[in-house]
């Protein structure tokens, strides 16, 4: 069994910084749409519209 940890900081309304043992990520947006960038260069956009959601992973 392995243990992990993470810590999330709210920088501004709609901007969050999440740090874990190996990387960090910056999330922009609110409850219905977000754009996330992590330290490995992966970018993800998420759109949530009630019971439907869409997620797109952007390639470098």
Explain this structure to me?
The protein is mainly beta. It has strands at residues 6-12, 15-20, 24-29, 33-38, 43-49, 52-58. The protein has a 6-stranded antiparallel beta sheet with strand order 1-2-3-4-5-6, with no helix packed on it. The model has no long low-confidence stretch (mean pLDDT 90).
Write the layout of secondary structure elements.
Elements: E1 6-12, E2 15-20, E3 24-29, E4 33-38, E5 43-49, E6 52-58
Antiparallel strand pairs: 1-2, 2-3, 3-4, 4-5, 5-6
Key descriptive features of the protein:
60 residues; mainly beta; globular; 6 strands; single chain; six-stranded antiparallel sheet
Give the spatial strand order of the biggest sheet. Answer: 1-2-3-4-5-6
Q: Tell me, what's the shape? A: globular
What is the helical fraction, as a range of percent? under 10%
Strand content: over 45%
> In total, how many beta strands?
6
- By helix and strand content, what is the structural category? mainly beta
Uncertain segments = none
Mean pLDDT: 90
What pattern of helices and strands is seen along the backbone? EEEEEE
Largest pleated sheet: 6 strands, antiparallel
First-residue to last-residue Cα separation: 33 Å
Rg from C-alpha positions? Answer: 13 Å
Helical run tally: 0
Describe the structure concisely for a colleague.
The chain is mostly beta strands and 60 residues long. It has strands at residues 6-12, 15-20, 24-29, 33-38, 43-49, 52-58.
């Amino acid at each position: 069994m392995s243990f992990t940890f993470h810590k999330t900081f709210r920088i501004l309304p709609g901007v969050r910084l999440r740090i874990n043992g190996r990387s960090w990520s910056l999330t922009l947006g609110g409850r219905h749409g977000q754009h996330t960038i992590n330290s490995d260069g992966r970018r993800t956009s998420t759109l949530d519209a009630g019971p439907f959601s869409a997620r797109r992973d952007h390639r470098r």
